[in-house]
Amino acid sequence: MTDTGEGAGQSAGRGTGLLWAPLAHRSFRSLAAGRLLVYFANAMAPVALAFAVLDTTGSTTDLGLVVGARSLANVALLLVGGVVADRVRRTLVLQGSALAAAGVQAAIAASVLLSATSIPLLMLLSVLNGALAALSLPASVALTPQTVPPELIRPANAVLRMGTNLGAIAGASLAGVVAAVLGPGWGLACNAVAFCGAAVCFLGVRVPRAAGKSAPGERVRPLRELREGWREFTARRWVWLVVLQFMVVNAVVAGGVQVLGPDIADDTFGRGLWGAVLAAQMAGALAGGVLAARSRVRRALLLGVALTAVEAVPLVVLAQAPYALLVGIAMFANGLALEQFAVAWDVSLQENVPHDRLARVYAYDALGSFVALPLGEMAAGPLARRLGTGPTLVGGAALVAVVTAAALCSRQIRTLTTGRAPAAAGGPRAAGTAGIPGAPEAGETPRMAEATSR
User: Fold this and answer.
1) pLDDT digits (tens, 9 = 90+) for 217-276
2) How far are the Cα atoms of 138, 226, 453 from residue 361, in angstroms, in the given order?
3) What is the distance, to the nearest Å, from the Cα of residue 352 to the centroid of all Cα atoms in its chain?
4) CB 175, CB 189: distance < 8 Å
5) Do residues 172 and 278 make contact, with C-beta atoms less than 8 angstroms apart?
6) Which residue has the higher pLDDT, 319 or 126?
7) What is this structure's pTM?
8) All domains of the chain, ordered by start, with CATH?
9) Is the separation of the CB atoms in 363 and 82 below 8 Å?
């Protein structure tokens, strides 16, 4: 659905270029601005928090516990977030979670600035942050198709990701500098301000009540809602295979980059340049977003899944040649490659999942992709002490390459095409043949008839 009274947006887009056409829609602009600020804050947070923990105890194990606590809470509540986003107005979910996140970040900043922090306190506040992120993530992504016409879904996703990458570039860059010059507490204070700004932006998102939202007085049955989402999630082999791939990839990268990376930076090129290295990844993602928006590759998911192997490159460089310039180049290439996957994935889901079930599918997607994050984050420090930092990172890189190759063995991933009209709310799953979304692979039994193609 699109904003009421904005029918001129498409024609305006022809004059300014298809890439920027979604910005003609007021609700989309507000959503994009809010997400930019959220990603700005979320890019600063792990950098500032990592150095806050290292300043407190100097232990990578403690750092893994703090970031792992956030991931555990995030994973535990993702399904709840999916149900809420499909049954409560998504704009309200985004506004409330942003304001609450601002309060949590302010509490963390105060504890650090007042030298009253401790690892148990940081773990508790990280748990609250993870819970809020779990509520907002499905709503944020599922809201996108409601703010632009169907023909603008691909450029809308690309523009959103370009905006969030810009926010992440600024956040990561500023976090390293602030942590080095003023201390990590002030970086966390900036997070709180950014989340407040995001809540204000989300007030400008106006979309009609979507089909599937609970009417006043209607009874919501969470277990039934989750079962419907599960049927949607498991109806296509290509969906859960990619999620399994990222279950491993995300765990490896989180442990290697977010836990071992700051420790390596502290011992080599310094905190300020570590922020610049992370910003290089976001700069690569920004360039990748431009390429993805202009791309007309029909088998975009195949390309994106294959390029996931580039995640291994920064791990190898950190292990073998931890120089800021080389790591920055590797991270830039990593961001450029992964953005091709990210846009292809979002478009593939949005074109094939009914919008009244989309948030729940995203919740299962995020749950599977993130469930192993705490394991990767908490295991990185002990593994590095036992095996050595270099071998741990190289082993992780090899694991990324193996699971990517395994995902590419799926015929559905290799043949899925994009460019379809989005699925209608609650629409029936269309039968298909090989290479068309909805087609079972050889030996695969089609699932329940009401499950729609992704």
Assistant:
1) 455 566 777 788 788 888 888 888 999 999 999 999 989 988 898 889 888 888 778 878
2) 8, 9, 12
3) 19
4) no
5) yes
6) 319
7) 0.62
8) 22-415 (1.20.1250.20)
9) yes
